[in-house]
Amino acid sequence: MIEILKAIILGIVEGVTEWLPISSTGHMILVDEFIKLNMSDAFMEMFFVVIQLGAILAVVLLYWHKLNPFSVQKGGAGNRITVKRETIEMWMKIIVSCIPAAVIGLLYDDEMNALFYNYQTVAIMLILFGILFIIIENKNKGKRSRINHLAQITYPIALMIGLFQLIAAVFPGTSRSGATIVGGLMLGVSRTVATEFTFFLAVPVMFGASALKLVKFGFNFTGQEIMILLIGMVVAFIVSILSIKFLMGYIKKNDFKAFGWYRIILGIIVIFYFSMQML
């Protein structure tokens, strides 16, 4: 029961922090210090990635009408399936955005984990992108966004957003959603569109990352490991639905500066806590 409770807590943390631009990795590192699952290091490395599948299914559920490239039209002779060209084009732009992170992730996943998966990197990136959020929001205050619809995102802009996503793929603590939203805001994309595009980018990225970790881990799960993984994913799915709805409602009336300040404070806490542990 204790291990199940730990998996539930980790699922809650994942569901909240995956979509808010505050770094799920930073929070997971802190939570793992206090709530350690009694599992192997190999399982935990895989768990922290694959648990995201629960979170991504929340996006698929909430935005199925925008992600599904097919529509069914009812007629006298029966139903006819048509392709939504605008949705297909959006998926092409998503693929373009995913290319940088996918290439680097496939080639250098283990090397990046060895070099950068540490509290120093997490803390620095938390603080750095927290500062960026505040600077960009202050700079954009009172200005009208150039891009206010998903269809207005061009392929070059999609690629540039993908480069920001690459930063998050390399440096833990950046926050994948935080990096892509920052990139979108810097390129003149509205908060709502930048956030939605970030959600959609997560679909292939998280599926790909999870598949890679599962293959590396192998499929020789024990019964307990399967149970812990499924519980974490289900909880992350439920909490993600609530988090996504909260964030989309919040940014319609507010900017991202509060998340920037939160990141800075969390980064300082990470530095202080782990520095004390080393004394």
From TrEMBL:
It catalyses: di-trans,octa-cis-undecaprenyl diphosphate + H2O = di-trans,octa-cis-undecaprenyl phosphate + phosphate + H(+). Its EC number is 3.6.1.27. Keywords: Antibiotic resistance, Cell membrane, Cell shape, Cell wall biogenesis/degradation, Hydrolase, Membrane, Peptidoglycan synthesis, Transmembrane, Transmembrane helix. The keyword Transport does not apply. The chain crosses the membrane at residues 46-64, 90-108, 114-136, 157-174, 194-215, 227-248, 260-276. It is found in: Cell membrane. One of its GO terms (cellular component) is plasma membrane. One of its GO terms (biological process) is cell wall organization. GO terms for molecular function: undecaprenyl-diphosphatase activity. Its main location: membrane. Coiled coil: none annotated. The keyword Cell membrane applies. It is a multi-pass membrane protein. Catalyzes the dephosphorylation of undecaprenyl diphosphate (UPP). Confers resistance to bacitracin. Belongs to the UppP family. Bacitracin is thought to be involved in the inhibition of peptidoglycan synthesis by sequestering undecaprenyl diphosphate, thereby reducing the pool of lipid carrier available. This is Undecaprenyl-diphosphatase. It comes from Desulfitobacterium dichloroeliminans (strain LMG P-21439 / DCA1). The gene is uppP.
